[in-house]
Amino acid sequence: MIDRAPTQADLVAMLARGDDLPPELATQQEPDAASGLESDLDARGDLVYTDIAYARPGGFRPLVLDLRVPPGDGPVPVVLYLHGGAFLWGSHHGPLFGVAEALADKGIATASAQYRLSGEAPFPANLHDVHAALRWLRVVGPELGLDPDRIGAMGESAGGFLACFAGMRLTDPALVGRVGLLGVEARVEAVVGWYSYTGSALEEHPDPAVASWASPRSHVTPDAAPMLLLHGDADGMGMEHSSDLVEALTAAGVEAEFSPVAGADHVFAGVDPAPVVAATAAYFAERLDARPRSRSN
After folding, report:
1. What is the radius of gyration, based on Cα positions, of the chain?
2. What is the C-alpha end-to-end distance of the chain, expressed in Å?
3. What digits encode the pLDDT tens for the residues 257-280?
4. Does the global pTM surpass 0.70?
5. C-alpha–C-alpha distance, residues 83 and 153, integer Å
6. What's the angle, vertex CA 97, arms to CA 278 and CA 246, rounded to 5?
7. What is the mean pLDDT of residues 2-24?
8. Cβ–Cβ under 8 Å, residues 106 and 290
9. How confident is the model at residue 138 (pLDDT cuts 50, 70, 90)?
């Protein structure tokens, strides 16, 4: 029992044990429903929604996502995109290198979500937010033309860490969290990571067990989603972040592929990212059984 205002260290320990959060942090308001959402039809013919609140955790700002839905009949698959920024910064607006548009050309929607940064709340709050976004897509997405059973996740750098973690199909309540809509599984069918960090989000934690717990490498099981991890071979962070995770996944019997990008530094600096974008869109199209949608101009 804490008889004072909880510190970040207190919250990390509580979440690691699976304890309930203090009432002022656990209190939540309802996320946005599909009814009443406003969208724009862009020049490509995609429906674009901006800053949808997928969760409103107590004590924090609303957590929002942008959604791009390509035209077509019937529900379409959707990919949750997670930005990078070392868990310290970053924006959900404008996924890199035109990947959202490339996915739309394959008949796949993109939901680009923000999450709480490390200065706002310690890990695993950001992972809780990712699971909340996935649950929102499953519950509310069908009203917006999304298929709740064909959801993928992708991210770059820190966002790749979160996408890979979500791809482990976690069951630990301390990692899944209770943010946003509850009662449905936050399941993804495929993951793509770009120059993903896969070490510990709590690498300086004094307890080695907690530090290990905060890495996706510690949660590999045969139930993990198929993954494609692309990483520049000139990345100063080290492409072993991706290759080592793929090795562990493969050893567990998971379909996983590591694709080094020759000459690329972090953020694929120094090379044309177009082939990476094309490979990403093709991978999701196959894994999510997507079909290109015809566009009316």
Report:
1. 18
2. 62
3. 999 999 999 999 999 999 999 999
4. yes
5. 11
6. 60
7. 61
8. yes
9. very high
Give φ, ψ of 276 to 5 degrees.
-65, -45
Residue 293 above 80 pLDDT? no
Q: Token pair for residue 243? A: 């290759």
> pLDDT averaged over the chain?
91
Cβ-Cβ contacts under 8 Å for 204 (sequence gap 6 or more): 211
Place 72 in a pLDDT band, splitting at 50, 70 and 90. Answer: confident
CA angle 68, 109, 253 (to 5 degrees): 145
d(CA 235, CA 159): 16
Give the integer Cα–Cα distance in Å for 57 and 293: 36
The residue assigned the tokens 């260290």 is 9
Alpha-carbon gap, residue 109 to 39, rounded angstroms: 14
